[in-house]
UniProtKB/TrEMBL annotation:
It holds the Pfam family SEO_C. InterPro entries: SEO_C, SEO_N, SEOA. This is Protein SIEVE ELEMENT OCCLUSION B-like. The gene is LOC113716481. One of its GO terms (biological process) is phloem development.
Amino acid sequence: MEMDRMKEVLGTHEPDGRDFDVTPLVPIVEDIIKRATFLGGGAQDQDYADTWEDTAIRRGSIDMKELTYAINKTINEIICNCSSGGDEHFVAMALCRSLSRYAWEDKVAIALAAFAVSYGKFWLVAQLLTTNPLAKSVAVIRELPEIIEHTEALKRKFEAVSNLSKAMLNVTSCIINLKELPTEYIGQSNEVVFLTAHVPTAVYWTLRSIATCSFILNLTALGPEYVDSAAEAWDLNSLAHKLAKIKEGLEDQTAIIKKEIEKRRQNDAYNALVELFKMPNTDSTKILSAVINVKEDQLPLYDGTNNKRASLDILRQKHVLLLISELHIPQEELSILHQFYTESRQQPTRLDKQYKVVWLPVVDTFSNATDEQFELVQNSMPWYSVHPIMLERAFIRFIKDVKSFDKTPQLLALHPRGNLSGYNARDMMWVWGNLAFPFTEEREKELWMEATLIELLADSIHQNLLLWADQNRYICLYGGADIEGIRRLTTIMRSVANTARIPLEMLYVGGKNPKESVRKNNSIIQAENLSHILPDLIKIQIFWMRLEIMLKSWGQHGMFVKSDLIQHVGKIICYDKDGEGWALIARGWHEMAKGIDKEVYQCLSKFNEWKDKVVYPDGFVIALDEKLRELHTPHHCNRLILPESSGHIPEKVSCAECGRPMESFFMYRCCTD
């Protein structure tokens, strides 16, 4: 039966293609239905009614010229057909035929507006008949006074009509909202099935409900006994329940369609962004405009130095580093970037070497807490930042899918002509600082070809380290957690240096995960004047993180990196992973020797046995290195651990101890330390 009924409904649908904007009708009808529910409620109801604002006026005016004729015609259709003796289905089908040339959403909006006019007239007269002579005269003709006398008896029915009216309004709103869906994404099979099957059904049952309510309004003129027998309240409530289920189905299906549309839209935006990054652009702001959702006349950038907002134009033709991170950024990451960013600003004569930094925080969900955390981090940054809500979703997908962003911060170099570097400038910054400018692969290769180990290890973790190297002093970098081993090593080093009359500087660099033991060691070393220290544990973390980043960089550019450099770096990392104390001794930028602290102590304790073989000034480190190698038996186990994210894995690596090719294995490790 339902199928035959819908076939009949579809048979009346012959739209002529005209487009009407019926959306503004909804708030007007809503206002009528709300205001038309009060009758004799006293001052309390009147006060409540007075709180309603003129919603339709606030939402903008509506041009009724094209719709007035259709609405008036439909009012007459409803009155005539309700008085002709037909049932609700008969009236609903009459409305379908009368409105056949309109689209589905226009049909139901016009019909509901026509009903609202009649509904509003009924209640307007009922509310004014005791205070307005004109209303009283109209009410007498319609026999409304007799209806009003039976208000309590009919209250349940009037409430049912009110509830059904609201249900009709809800369904109509859902149908009209479908019109707002972007047509360029509609047309695939699932959407077509939904639009052709569910919407006509929703329209029919709304029209049928309009007919049912209209019967009630028409029969009031015949007296309360007819109202009481024409339609029981439970029939009205049953219709309201059916419309509620239809509304629920419409909303569920619409949500599915919207989700699919948004998915397609995001795919289109993502593909367009990927293509944009592939193209050489004449202006970097074109890239930034695709990354940041900027509305007209909006200033999306916050300048952390001047504490004011700025437009994207300030970045035009500039070298820009995009800092991609979560809201929580490790302190060591901020410390490194802050250091080099500040240094770049202290060279006003080298404007060509300066760059801008823009923080683009990635946040999955927003709340007051995330806003507070964002502002807290933002206020600690001297560079530009963008609120996370302004980032395009396509860009977030791009950095996750293409740039493999997880949680570790990234620095993406955007060059003045809009070219986005394929490499993470964050690693270049950690290893080379501002020497890596303009943060290209070619520049990094040049730096690796020119690098020395002491230069890589020293960097700027200690204010005097580079000065010591320039002065050709002997430098001992050492680490470990055993304070007794530290005392033995520093004591023998100082004793041998005095005997050999060589200028020596020692610096304690702790371990990769500086804990309370390292803090205590720092205090003891400083109190006993054993050596220099890095008092800031962040500096210690930076030292060890740089070593691991060097390994990662070697994995990416292995063929351009001197293998002996990376072997030394890998060996130091292995010392730390094994929990061994260790020492590296170098003369300025030149020769060096390294080993675990026990071996270094063993060799130095026998200095008197080999001191006569030392040819100064360069012979001391060379001789020490030979003695350390003599301690290595043919049977040894040496290893080099590369980070999993290295990318390039060299085919051949020589052992740092004996020079023979090393075997390669996969290693899986769980370390809760």
